[in-house]
Structure formats: structure tokens, C-alpha cells
């Protein structure tokens, strides 16, 4: 009776979420029912309405007057005899009449009470339940009496079975999509899996995406990796809970798995509870989830059937009997118009997960409006990997279509036609691009001319033949902004290759020329430092810098930039100055540190210690910026911070050291009485004191100094003596 291996390979160990809980590492184990991982029999079901017959997979709801054909597909060697019973239900307080029960002895031929059931939906019916029971004496009457005695229990079971079957179908669609991507392009799974999960309203364990590519699929397909289903957006969503947003609004309920909740959990637990309550000495009822494909309803069980008392009765449910409620897509704000001719262009519409998990929505198309022409339908398919509806691959369309071009979504929801929102379409047209403005000199080129939605790739190439991919963004229907890659940041012209749809010959490799904005170029021709006009450092420094490369941080620095041949200054330039040893920099502008002398000469004037802060030191450099296009860094010198040396007190006994007094002595590296530093005194790193023992200077009062910021350069300070036997010397 049961198909060996049909579902077992697909659902592997089947989701614990499908049997009643989401397993999360660290969460306490709950006593939940067994998973639905047993393949039951197939039912062949079709529905006819107003002369039109549809397979069960495309029927979201039944209606009064529908004619339903139901047949059990059993193997020829089936030994156990099964009775197929169909029962229409109306409401919990009103048991169905005897005439609403139908039976088929499946082991007999049609003329002897067997064969398919031919049912007509009564006017007041709300649900249709199907039962498969072992054939015993009085089995049909026993089943009928059980339903008539407790109609509410069977109605609730039918509701929950319908919703649980839809949720299971949604998860099967997720599994199929993950397997499709992992089998074809496993390296893209980390990128595609979130799109698939979002489309099907499924929350996945994002830790899976952090694993190596070869292990991602196994993790995502593992039911124990905290997969949670949200609301599918169907009219039945309220039956089992409404988690309507993408994060699923995980409830903090113990029944939901110690803080993790899925609408599916509620449905399964209700089903198990209801079926347990319907147990009798003769029969036990087993829930069967129905997975529809074309005209086949495959049943999946969570309990092995028993042929001994109490014998097992399988219960499945067909779609509810209710007015049609098509789940019509709606426009995505700011969505890009799909380009005809592109490879599987995505239509900017938001759709229900049931578009991927079921065939309820079928014969979908974009109906193109053409004045005075025959209607043109472009077929659509729901693709969870792309996250929406795409124009079917290989769709043919007239090449003479021109914008503006609009279309309306058209489709069928079961037996009922519906129209969706209007969708603008883009066509490549005349594939001609040109710069819109001479403009932005920040490496961004604004182009206009053709359909922006039809741009597939852009590459930037130099005259030397080096090509690099370029990024772009859509600014309008016929306008894009192209950002040239850093690799193409050269001073020679750059050629852009803008590719359109592969199916449009005229759009392949049309190459407009563009020129990268030339970086500003200049050289430093002069440099000068002087004390500030006022302030604590107004007096001349007492420490003489002997290195031509040294720049005191406490002095005003001026340097002159000379434009390279072929370049000129406009007065709108920016000069960025900073040290290469840190990220600290300052930008100087005209009137704030910059003076334009003439179109080829620019003078920079600023106080480094004030502009860059007291922690800046080391190689000082500058560069010109015009917009966001930067020139090369130019070395200015070495920025050094200077201590303030005040007095040098020397005792009368020449064998004893002198005492140096001052501020910021930690900016000294070492001192010596000779330029060769034969007997140098090192200053401890970060020395915080204001006095320091040093050797006695030479006859002229000179000490040689190495600074912390430039220890390779020897500088000097000269102290003047007061009288022949004076004990104190001061810096001039």
C-alpha cells in the first residue's frame, strides 16, 4: 500500500518543526509527536466547475456545485482492503446528514461498488474530509456515526490539516530551491539562501551561511537547524497563528519550543490532540498531510497504520469550501521596470509564498498594452531563487516595441481570473549612451540615452587594454551613474563597454568613450617655518634644528605648490595635509589656509600642531583634491614636536652632573656633550618629570640633542654662562 522511499529520501529524518517543535541548540527537549516522514497512498483528484476541469494542485478552494472525482491509487498486489469514505461537513453545531457521506470499496470494480468517487459539493457544506479505513463489517456506519457525533472535532481537524499541508508544501518548495542552487552553483548558496527563505517566509539559521560552501547546503537542509515558518499570507493564516513579518515574531511560549514558535507547531499539536480524543476501541484516526502535484494528492503520515484493533483510519482534507480569495500581488515601492530581452527579468511585484509552494496561481502573464495591435501576453513563473515573478526564459516578443510601454498582470487563481497592478516595461531600443554632463570630477560618470533597466554589465578599459568591471546605479529610466573602479584610476582616457540583454544584438558591446577626470598634479617648490605672531610660543625656540627635513609642530608652516605643465589652479582646490604614521589629516581650502597667487601658484599656510593635534608627528605629506579626485601624495618633511628647555644648573664640582629643567622633556630621545654622542644620556620613554640629570656641556655651553620624533637627526641647544664661576646657565 505504501510507496517505499518516495518521500523518505526527500524529507530525510523530516523536520522536527513539522512534528511539533523547532529544535534549537540549548533548548530543553519537549515530548512532541513523531515527524511526518511516512509515505502514504496517493489520491487522484480533479475538480470540475462550469465545464472546466482542473487538477487538485491548482484548486485553492472548493465551491457549491463543484464536481469532484477521487480515486485511490493502490498497487496491483495490494492485499489489505481499504474503504474510501468522503464526508462533507458544515458547522460544529450542525451534524452533516447521512446523504453527505459517500463510500467506495477500492478493491472492487466500479460496477460492484468500487472505482472513483464522484462527488457534488452541497450548498451548505464547508469542508470535505476523506477517510481510508480497513474494510471490516460495519466500518462505513461506524465512521459516519463518529463524524455525526462530533462534527466540531472533525471540522477543526480538517481546518488544521489543510493549513498544515500548505505549510508543509511551503517547506518542500524551500528544500527544492536550496537543492537546486547547491547542485548547480554551490558557491552562490550563501547569497541565494536568504532570498529563498524570504520569499517563502521561512527563517533559517544564518550560522549555516558562515560555513564553508560545501557544508552550507547540508546545514540548510537539516530540520534541526532552527527553521521557522511564518504566515503564508493565505486566508487560513489565522487558524494557526499569524506571524506576518519576516522575523516571524517568535513567541515566548513553552508550547512553542521554549521560546521558539511556528504557526505549524500549533496546527500539528491541535491535530494530534484532536485525533487522540477521537480514539475508540475499534478505530484510531491518523492525520495525513496532502502534498498536491498536478492531479495527485500524496499523503504523508506520522504514524504507521495498524491493521489490528484499534485499526487505523487515515484522514485527509481537501481545500475548504468558501468564496474565492485570490492573493493578488502588489507593486514594490521603487521597483525597477523589467527589461524585455534580459535573462529572466524580475517583475517588481510582491507575491505570497503560496505562488512558489502551490500551483493555485497559474497561467500568469504580463498583458502588454499596444494601441491598435493584438494583445501580447508575456508568460510569468514564480522563482524563489530570484525572489519573485520572472518573465519565462525564451519568451519571444516583437523587436519593434518602443517605450513608454506598460503591461498589466493577468492570471488565474484556481478557477477564477484576476488582474493585478500595472507594470512598466523597458526595452533596449537605440543602445546609445553619452555623458549627461562634463561634471562631477569624483570618478563618477553620469550617462543617459537608453533603458537603464537593460544594462547588464559595464567594464572600463584603459588604452593599454586592461579591463575592469565597473559598478553603476540607476538614476532614472534612461540614466545611470557609473563609478570607475580604482584599478582604472589613471590619467589616460577610459573606455566604457556597456552590455545590454544577450538576446539583443544591437545592445552587445556598444562602446562609448569617456575620459576619467585627470587628477590634479603639482610639486612643492618652497617651504618656510616661523614662530606664531603671539601666544605662549611667541619667543624664538631655544632648540636649534640642524636637520633640513625637520618641521617644528609649534611653528607656522608655509609651503608653495606649483602646478605641473598642462594644469592650473582654479581656487576651488582642496589641500589635504597629514602624517603617514596616522589617519589624522586636515583639509585646507581657499581663505582657510590656501591662497591662490595665480593659476599656477598656490601657497599653503597653517600651524601643524594646532591643525593636526598634539599627537601628530613623523613624515608630513600633502595632496591636492579636485572634487573627490585626488592627486599624488607629496612629501613635505618630518614633523617634530619640541620640548621647552628652560635652565641648566651645573654644580661647582665638575664631576657631578648638571640638572636640565623644562617642559615636555619626554619629547627628547637622548643628549650628549659631543656631536658624536660618545657619552650620551638617554631619556626614558614617556618621561613625565620637569628636571633631568645631564652631562656638563662643552666650553661653549652646547648640548647635542636627538628628538623622540626624529631620533636619527642630531640637533643642538646652546646655554650661556653667567660669570666665570657661575653655577646656572640659561638658554638664550
Description of the molecule:
It is a single chain. The chain is mainly β. The chain folds into 5 domains: 8-26 and 37-317, no CATH class; 332-425; 434-514, Immunoglobulin-like, CATH 2.60.40; 522-640, Immunoglobulin-like (Sandwich); 644-730, no CATH class. The protein is built from 10 helices and 46 strands. The strands form 9 sheets. Strands 1, 2, 3, 4, 5, 6, 7, 10, 11 and 12 form a 10-stranded mixed beta sheet that branches. Strands 28, 29, 30, 31, 32, 33, 34, 35, 36 and 37 form a 10-stranded mixed beta sheet that branches. Strand 43 and strand 44 form a beta hairpin. Helix 4 runs antiparallel to helix 5 and helix 4 packs across helix 8 (263-277). The longest helix is centred in the N-terminal third of the chain and has 34 residues, at 151-184. The radius of gyration is 41 Å and the shape is elongated. It starts with 7 loop residues before the first helix and ends with a strand. Residues 1-32, 235-266, 535-541 and 722-728 have low confidence and may be disordered.
